Amino acid sequence: MKKAGIKIEDLHLSFGPTEVLKGVNLDIQPGEFFAFLGPSGSGKSTLLRSIAGFGPQPRGRIMIGDRDVVGLDPWRRNVGMVFQSYALWPHMSVRDNVAFGLRERRLPASTIGPKVMEGLELVGLAHLADRMPNQLSGGQQQRVALARTVVTEPTVLLLDEPLSNLDASLRVQMRRELLRLQRKLGLTTIFVTHDQEEANTTSDRMAVLDGGVIQQIGSPQELYDRPANLFVARFLGTANILEGRVESDASGARFRTATGDMLALPGGRNAAGSNIVLRPQNISIQREAGANALSGKVLHREFLGSQIRYLVAAGGTEIVVDQSHSAGRDWFETGAEVHLQANTENAVVL
User: Which residue intervals define the domain ABC transporter in the entry (predicted)?
Assistant: First the structure.
């Protein structure tokens, strides 16, 4: 299949007086698995539908390959879209559902038959070609929707929260299948989700949206380790955010919390900001005071199997700390006075 990149330039879109997309700029590489991630109402599905050609016409440019598709009808853009509901025809067999787009393109029957079976084999459902949609599981229906889309040989595959109707264990299985299929076909793919785990485990890069604005673009690791702002820090995983200020002198830089505690910032003399972000795994909980430590009290404890999660009052806020669990390891009781040692090598000042 042909691969095409997508370039979006200064895209604006409104529903009546409400501006939903506010100057979006984005460059997606050919063959990339890209995710739009954000809370409900952030504009991620609207952006996806704008690429597909559904909804109001936006202002700006959407380049698919070397062609600006703004203003083109959806069927002239050569994109394939899989919807959250799968949108299968209930009165048609699996075979006929997959063949539908090919028949709409007036392909000869001698071509349609082999292409349909090729698509079903790709998703592992050739043996169910004569079943009806109501005879399939949710995961199987999703695979039929994928097969129906990819047999039309789109240059771009658009996935609008396709896993949200599946149970938790099946979602894990199907996101692996999605990634396997995408890698096999080499299709430029955009995956819309509000689930950070889905975005982290599938995408090469992602864009985090809020309020119709892209907050940050990068790999899952880049966005988790180096969030550009507090919204991204909070949205991607658990983030401990301490308020205060950076102080610098000839000996280096330190972060003074709102309660007066000091945390050294290695290599961060020029850091500036009023918040420090620490992930739970970058804080250790201990009984004795040490360097770069905050004094606190355990408020709550949860056993999560591979780790123990503590909620500790310290530094003027409530801090989440993850400690790996092993048999025989002592736990800290609720109410215990503890010290939190922060690994500020991995901290972010915002």
Answer: 6-236
